[in-house]
Design goal:
Structural class: alpha+beta
Number of strands: 5
Strand content: 25-35%
Helix content: 25-40%
Number of helices: 5
Strand order of the largest sheet: 1-2-3-5-4
CATH class: Alpha Beta
Number of domains: 1
Length: 136
């Protein structure tokens, strides 16, 4: 099964739509609830990161019998230092984003904690692609 979503940067009202849809699909497929929770947390963090930091983004999700593969690609500033961005509490979110309650610097660390495989590719000033795989 394949699902695709688009995300507009700055539109926090749309953040969470993909993770909600994926949660419903995985429940229908009978996936373990603990696994669903991890996937939804990681995907939600990725959605919020696109909304908070990028101009726009796309999510491609492949669901197989034994795993889910999520690829989030955005057009945005990229990540100058991935190692630093993986540190809990480190954030480059704007003051406006932080005032809305986002940008606490837990996005990438939470994605890593809640996925079996995480890969980040980025080109500073252009884009970031995050690939997450969870096994059921």
């Amino acid at each position: 099964m394949e699902l695709n979503f688009s995300i507009e940067g700055g539109d926090f009202t749309q953040a969470g739509q993909a993770s909600s849809r994926v949660k419903a699909v995985l429940k229908q497929l009978g996936v373990n609830t603990k696994c669903i929770k991890s996937i939804v947390i990681a995907l939600y963090e990725a959605e919020v990161n696109v909304v908070a930091h990028a101009y726009k983004g796309w999510i491609n999700i492949q669901i197989d019998k034994d795993k889910i593969r999520i690829v989030i690609t955005d057009e945005g500033p990229g990540i100058p230092d991935i190692g630093k961005a993986m540190e809990e509490g480190f954030s480059t979110a704007s003051k406006k984003v932080r005032e809305m309650g986002f940008g606490a610097g837990m996005g990438l660390p939470n994605m890593k904690k809640n996925t079996d495989e995480l890969n980040i590719e980025t080109v500073v000033g252009e884009s970031t692609t995050v690939t997450m795989v969870n096994y059921f």
